[in-house]
Write a structure and sequence with these properties.
The complex is a heterotrimer of chains A (about 250), B (about 625) and C (about 240).
Chain A lengths: L4 E10 L2 E11 L4 E5 L6 H8 L7 E6 L2 E2 L5 H6 L2 E4 L11 H12 L15 H10 L15 H13 L5 E5 L7 H18 L2 E5 L3 H7 L2 E6 L2 E6 L1 H5 L2 H8 L9
Parallel strand pairs in A: 3-8, 3-9, 6-7, 7-8
Antiparallel strand pairs in A: 1-2, 1-4, 4-5, 9-10
Helix pairs in contact in A: 3-4, 3-5, 4-5, 6-7
Chain B lengths: L1 H32 L6 H19 L4 H25 L9 H23 L15 E4 L2 E4 H23 L1 H18 L4 H23 L9 H16 L4 H21 L4 H15 L27 H20 L2 H24 L10 H17 L4 H23 L4 H21 L1 H4 L5 E2 L10 H24 L1 H11 L1 H6 L4 H27 L1 E2 L6 H14 L6 H19 L3 H15 L4 H21 L1
Antiparallel strand pairs in B: 1-2, 3-4
Chain C lengths: L2 E12 L2 E12 L3 E5 L6 H8 L7 E6 L2 E2 L5 H6 L2 E4 L11 H8 L12 H7 L1 H4 L11 H13 L5 E5 L7 H16 L3 E6 L2 H7 L2 E6 L2 E7 H6 L1 H8 L2
Parallel strand pairs in C: 3-8, 3-9, 6-7, 7-8
Antiparallel strand pairs in C: 1-2, 1-4, 4-5, 9-10
Classes of the chains: A alpha/beta (about 250), B mainly alpha (about 625), C alpha/beta (about 240).
């Protein structure tokens, strides 16, 4: 069986600068893989090529063995790829439930209906998704006034609405308190294992990475310089030199 | 033939200079203050009038008198710009950008009446410029030397501005503030002074543009709006924030105008439209524009959109009941007024679909109202259609135009998009104005009367009311249907919307078309209510009417624009009866309203309510 | 130690949400103070309020014994407070030199005087890219440029909002070293931070904010010894 996500020899340059230069990796169903590296290493470029926001100059992307290289983000989403953003992006003029309902409406292909109340559609399914991310009983609250950690959970519920095979999470815990970070990633890991979802995430918090990633990929200047388990990557001298440092300011890893 | 091409090219280049000066000032002011200065065309006009008076007074034959007059006119225009900035805009930099825009439109109205009162309604023809009275022989053609002088002005000013922006501290600060004015201020730069100086500079450029026109063409009261519309086109085509782009676009538009007269003398602006369309297809952000320069369209807070509660529904039913019973008690002329109000409610509701759930600001929604009216009138005049058929053709014509214009508009966003809508509206207006054979030009089309059964005023009122209720209810259903939600999702967070499979561009395009159709229905009804159509139906002031109606009532609610339509049109009709200088009074009222309630009426109320609630919560938890 | 900056009873709103509910603490001359707390606790809002970037705050802010609450940002900056925002906000179209020019202010008595050359000694990377536009720099380089730009105003007090956020651990180490150098120059620093390891390595004092109120205000050593406070407010 092919892996859920496979990237082969991805490359992208901007004005002569190689942002990503021949990166290959795979993510298996039910596994969490972290993509780490210094700023400017090419993490975001890599992500944007996977979900269709950028077309790679070279290389291919496969979802469960099928090529998805260069498809539009909308089409990639319809094939079962969910996405969360570094800075939360929800619909502020809607309630939490309506946010999830909107994703469900889109999943069912009902976007263009001009009649019938949208608020009446898929209510139970939306509430069930919210319950799954631990947001029971708050469905009527406006997303515009939610705390940051809660928004991150709503985003996860939205991303789960199209029953994804793959989740792409860009710095899922950025801006959260340390304890909330661990809790959110624990929740993500549990859901991913239950449903057999492959998860690829970027992250700067090494506590989160080393606690939850099944595998860690390290990028530097557009190239993959290390890949392996948390322990392997943590002890890799090259990774320490370009990224982790001595550990004096980041918790002694 | 070659002579003609050459002459027209030189003509085009000469007219490009003033256009460049105005557009460049507009672009620089917008960059730093984030205010689209609608009054920039008025400053251009003011520069022209002031130069006329000063030059005449100082002695037009004397070089010192002429050029001295021009320079003083530029300085005075600059001062007028400073006054506008200090007295009005400085107080509303925190207000939503649409309110700022309305305030500058208030200034447009005031300056129109000030110019009318000062210089009278006749065109003012200026003297020739001393030193540039002769002709130059170019390829056996006599070419006025003043035109050559004007051609040189553009590149010279462009070069000076480049030096100013790259070689002086002021220029560096301006470029920095264009990116992030708050940060500039946090670094110790006096923002007020910077804004005022930018306004003075931009106004001076507009004044220079106007003053230099004096030897070339008559100064008149319509210069302001025709210039601002063209300046918007130049800014959109050149790329927002790019001075060089503005110059290239001004040359392009100027030359196209000159050739348009040769190729399509009836509809010169169509050529401009085609080129603008071509540029925007290839480069959506203009010739030299960069993606992401324009700020997001709505900076305001997003409130939950809820269906009407019981009290609001009851209020609506009572209001509808009163409207239905009104003809039984009110006199005939009031029935006519009520008919207008009902039609404008549809017009406002159609714009609200764009501005509310769509998050799209249109400065040119009157185009679709007007095209609806012309659709109906042309059907009556050229096809001999009865009213019933003409009322079907009205939304068809508006809808087709909306689909075509909308296709371009939704590729942009924010203020940039709004400028494009205005440009399209101006093109529609100019077509109706210039294509005399088809539309009757300024004289309009008369004799657009309803079918015999609907001729009695009361009957037509009920017809309008019934159609209005149908359209408004349909719009409301759409807003709460999946389509409306998807549209709103694209407004709230385009990034997230795309990431859950929504095609935001196409949703907005559909909304644009639907709004155009609804506005077309209103326009068709209006044509039959008045019995005639005129180009003014799609002129800029009518578009601003619609904006005022929506903003007065509040974008945040579905019922707001309808209330706004009644309040605003009711008031302005009364005002027109009371004073000859109604523009000045209306302009002043708009300015005062914006300065006193910078969050808008509904916004102010929501803000205070929310603060009270949060204060109450804090006390409860403490 | 005399207080350089003194806040008392600060209340502030962000839009319609009340973020600060009476914040009070002070920063002494020559001191590095860390304002700590979770995201959304009010750290950035406190910084912005000091800088005059939050509309209509309540309460008193005194800098060098002068009341500055309600003044405009530029006036506050000219008194000698330099602000480095969390999202960096370099002028991406302007070169490194032009970015520094925007920040330039006249020399100030009692504060170190900075020139581009002195700053390039402190940040050698910047010296090698004088004509590069800010937008073409990496995140770490941008962070350095933002600090350098603010130093061009010759401040006495530096407000650093989340200086380590989003930076690779090696860059964070360099940042800590820079702050130590600045302290050596006689600058006072107030930094907001979530990262205790980072703050603990440079700050003299720790102020913890939670839900818009100050919950802890003592030396950094005291915080390091107080496990209860750390787990309660910082969740570490």
């Amino acid at each position: 069986m092919p892996p859920m996500l496979e990237a082969r020899d991805l490359a992208k340059s901007f004005g002569g600068v190689k942002a990503v230069d021949g990166v290959s990796f795979a993510v298996e169903a039910g596994k969490l893989v972290a993509l780490i590296g210094p700023n400017g290493a090419g993490k975001t470029t890599c992500f944007n090529m996977l979900n269709g926001q950028l077309k790679p100059d070279r290389g291919e992307v496969f979802l469960a063995g099928k090529p998805i290289t260069g498809l539009e983000p909308r089409k990639i989403w319809r094939l079962g790829v969910g996405r969360t953003f570094q800075i939360t992006a929800t619909f502020a003029s809607m309630t939490m439930r309506e946010n999830v309902q909107m994703a469900l409406i889109s999943h069912e292909g009902e976007n263009w209906r001009l009649f019938g109340r949208a608020g009446e559609r898929h209510r139970e399914a939306a509430d069930a998704l919210l319950a799954q991310v631990g947001m029971t009983g708050q469905a009527e609250r406006a997303c515009g006034v939610l705390a940051y950690g809660d928004l991150k959970r709503v985003e996860l519920a939205i991303a789960l609405a199209n029953a994804p095979k793959l989740l792409l999470m860009d710095e899922p815990t950025a801006g959260m308190a340390p304890q909330e970070r661990i809790a959110l990633m624990a929740l993500t890991a549990r859901i991913a294992r239950q449903r057999g979802i492959a998860v690829l995430f970027t992250e700067h918090d090494m506590d989160v990475v080393f606690a939850h990633a099944d595998r860690v990929l390290v990028l530097d200047r557009g190239r993959l310089i290390a890949a392996g388990t948390s322990a392997e990557v943590r002890n890799d001298p090259q990774v320490r030199a370009v990224y982790l440092g001595s550990g004096a300011t980041s918790g002694g890893h | 033939m070659l002579d003609l091409v050459l002459t027209q090219t030189l003509n085009g280049l000469a007219s490009a200079s003033s256009l460049f000066l105005v557009a460049c000032g507009l672009s620089i002011i917008f960059g730093v203050t984030r205010i689209v200065n609608f009054a920039h065309g008025s400053l251009y006009m003011l520069g022209g009038y002031l130069a006329f008076t000063l030059v005449t007074w100082l002695g037009p034959a004397d070089p010192l008198g002429f050029w001295g007059g021009v320079i003083i006119a530029v300085l005075l225009t600059s001062l007028a710009g400073v006054l506008v900035e200090v007295l009005i805009l400085r107080r509303i930099y925190q207000a939503p950008e649409l309110f700022q825009l309305l305030a500058t439109f208030g200034v447009v109205l005031m300056l129109q009446d000030i110019a009318l009162a000062t210089w009278g309604p006749e065109d003012k023809l200026g003297p020739r410029a001393p030193g540039f009275r002769s002709f130059v022989i170019l390829f056996d053609n006599r070419f006025p030397s003043y035109e050559l002088f004007l051609i040189a002005v553009g590149p010279v000013v462009l070069g000076l501005i480049w030096l100013l922006f790259h070689r002086t501290r002021w220029g560096v600060l301006i470029r920095a503030a264009t990116q992030d004015r708050e940060m500039v201020s946090a670094l110790g730069v006096n923002q007020r002074l910077l804004f005022t100086s930018v306004f003075a500079f931009g106004a001076a450029l507009a004044g220079l543009g106007g003053a230099l026109q004096l030897p070339r063409e008559a100064i008149n009261l319509h210069m302001d709006l025709s210039m601002i519309a063209e300046a918007f086109v130049v800014v959109v085509v050149g790329g927002l924030g790019s001075v060089t782009g503005a110059y290239l676009a001004a040359v392009l538009i100027g030359v196209l105008h000159a050739f348009g007269i040769l190729i399509l003398p009836k509809i010169t602006l169509v050529l401009v439209f085609l080129v603008m369309a071509a540029v925007l297809i290839v480069r959506p952000h203009g010739l030299l524009g960069k993606a992401g320069v324009e700020p997001r369209g709505h900076a305001g807070q997003l409130f939950l959109l809820r269906p009407a509660d019981r009290a609001a529904k009851l209020f609506g039913i009572v209001a509808l009941g009163l409207l239905a019973l009104a003809p039984l008690v009110v006199p005939d002329h009031l029935v006519l007024t009520l008919t207008d109000l009902v039609i404008f409610a549809v017009f406002a509701a159609s714009l609200h679909l764009l501005m509310g759930p769509g998050g799209i600001t249109s400065f040119g929604h009157a185009a679709y109202f007007g095209l609806g009216a012309y659709g109906a009138a042309l059907a009556v005049k050229w096809l001999g259609s009865p009213m019933e058929e003409a009322l079907m053709l009205a939304p068809l014509m508006a809808g087709v135009a909306g689909a075509i214009f909308g296709w371009f508009c939704v590729r942009l966003s924010g203020v940039y998009l709004a400028m494009l809508t205005l440009a399209f509206a101006q093109i529609a207006w100019a077509t109706a104005f210039q294509w005399v054979d088809l539309t009757g030009g300024d004289n309009g089309i008369l004799g657009v009367w309803p079918s015999a059964w609907a001729v009695p005023k009361t009957v037509f009122y009920y017809l309008a009311l019934a159609i209005a209720v149908l359209v408004i209810v349909a719009l409301r259903i759409i807003i709460f249907a999946p389509f409306g939600y998807a549209l709103r999702a694209g407004r709230d967070s385009p990034l997230r919307a795309e990431a859950i499979g929504l095609d935001v561009g196409r949703l907005q395009w559909a909304a644009f078309t639907i709004a155009a159709i609804a506005a077309g229905i209103a326009g068709g009804l209006f044509a039959f209510s008045k019995g005639s159509v005129f180009p003014t139906y799609m002129a800029i002031p009518r578009s601003v009417d619609a904006l005022l109606m929506v903003l007065l009532g509040g974008v945040q609610t579905v019922a707001g624009p309808i209330v706004g339509a009644f309040a605003y049109m009711g008031l302005s009709e009364q005002l027109m009866k009371l004073t000859g200088y109604w523009r000045f009074v209306l302009g002043l009222s708009i300015v005062l309203l914006v300065v006193l309630f910078p969050r808008g009426l509904v916004g102010t109320w929501l803000f205070w309510r929310a603060r009270r609630e949060s204060a109450a919560q804090a006390t409860a938890t403490a | 130690m005399a207080a350089l900056l003194e806040l008392s009873g600060i209340e502030a709103w962000y839009g319609r949400a009340k973020i600060l509910h009476g914040v009070g603490f002070s920063v002494g001359a020559g001191e590095v103070a860390a304002l700590m707390g979770r995201n959304g606790a009010g750290k950035s809002t406190t910084m912005k309020t000091v800088m005059g970037l939050v509309p209509e705050p309540q309460g008193s802010i005194r800098f060098e014994a002068k009341e500055i609450a309600g003044r405009e940002p530029f006036a506050i900056a000219r008194l000698g407070i330099g602000y480095v925002p969390e999202d960096r906000r370099v002028f991406s179209e302007l070169t490194v030199m032009d970015n520094l020019e925007v920040g330039r202010q006249p020399p100030r008595a009692g504060a170190p005087h900075w020139t581009p050359e002195r700053l390039f000694d402190l940040f050698p990377n910047l010296g090698r890219m004088r004509d590069r536009p800010g937008g073409a720099m990496s995140g770490g380089e941008q962070q350095m440029l933002t600090i350098a730009r603010t130093l061009m105003g010759n401040p006495r007090l530096l407000l650093l909002d989340e200086p380590s956020e989003g930076l690779a651990p090696v860059i964070v180490e360099a940042m800590a070293q820079t702050i130590r150098v600045l302290k050596g120059e006689g600058l006072s620093v107030l930094l907001s931070e979530q990262n205790l390891h980072f703050a603990g390595s440079i700050a003299d004092r720790a102020v913890i904010i939670e839900k818009g109120l100050i919950r802890f205000d003592d030396t950094m050593a005291a915080l390091k010894a107080d496990e209860a406070a750390r787990s309660q407010y910082l969740a570490v």
